[in-house]
Design brief:
By secondary structure, the chain is an alpha/beta fold. It has 8 helices and 7 strands; from the N terminus they run E-H-H-E-H-E-H-E-H-E-E-E-H-H-H. The protein has a 7-stranded mixed sheet. Strand 2, helix 3 and strand 3 form a beta-alpha-beta unit. 31% of the residues are buried.
């Protein structure tokens, strides 16, 4: 998993509330357990017409937001089923940070395991970021995980809270496998000792 330290990028405004995981990645695309390849179908039913052509008014189809790395979203983002494909699709598209007033718990935790920083802020502060995002690609925000701050294009700084352990994992680029491999020496020492003590196993 890539380390998340400081992100300076385009923020896309998506003020819709209750965006569920089926809206993020419709179930028809859940045919793989690989983490890649889902980005093209992110928000598929909102991004494309039935003939496959793009819906021009959808935010991520607009030229100024095609390379967005930050998503400013409405309340209760990621609700619905617990599919991990949802953060896979978000990450594969290139979005590394999602800001909302609230997230579904399972989606929230899955984000951290896939290199995405979900940030919870009060509505008034989300409104400030939403307004800044609506300015387009020239209004780039900075998300500093170490300092736990978001800086708008106009220099307004907003602080956010994040669990210390989850912060550590993102800063170090550690998913569940990475956390396990960090203890490789201890695991191997235990296995050697156990094998010597019970050679018949």
């Amino acid at each position: 998993m890539e380390k998340f330290e400081k992100l300076h990028g385009i923020a896309a405004p998506m003020p819709l509330v209750n965006i569920d995981t089926d809206m993020i990645i419709p179930k028809v695309f859940l045919k793989s357990i690989a983490r890649t390849g889902f980005g093209k179908n992110l928000f598929d039913e909102m991004r494309y017409n039935r003939d496959g052509s793009e819906i021009e008014d959808f935010v991520l189809n607009k030229p100024q937001y095609r390379n967005a790395e930050i998503l400013i979203a409405g309340d209760n983002f990621g609700c619905g089923s617990s599919r991990e494909h949802a953060p896979w699709a978000i990450a594969d598209f290139g979005i590394k940070c999602v800001v909302s007033t609230s997230f579904a718990d399972i989606f929230f935790n899955n984000c951290f395991k896939n290199g995405i920083l979900p940030i919870v802020l009060p509505q008034a502060e989300v409104d400030v970021l939403m307004e800044d995002a609506e300015r387009g690609e020239n209004a780039r925000m900075t998300v500093d995980l170490e300092a736990q701050e978001i800086t708008t294009s106009e220099g307004t700084t907003i602080s956010f809270e994040v669990d210390a352990f989850k912060k550590h994992c993102l800063l170090e680029g550690l998913d569940d496998i990475g956390l396990t491999m960090a203890k490789k020496a201890s695991i191997e020492a235990y296995e050697t000792q156990a094998s010597a003590a019970r050679p018949w196993v």
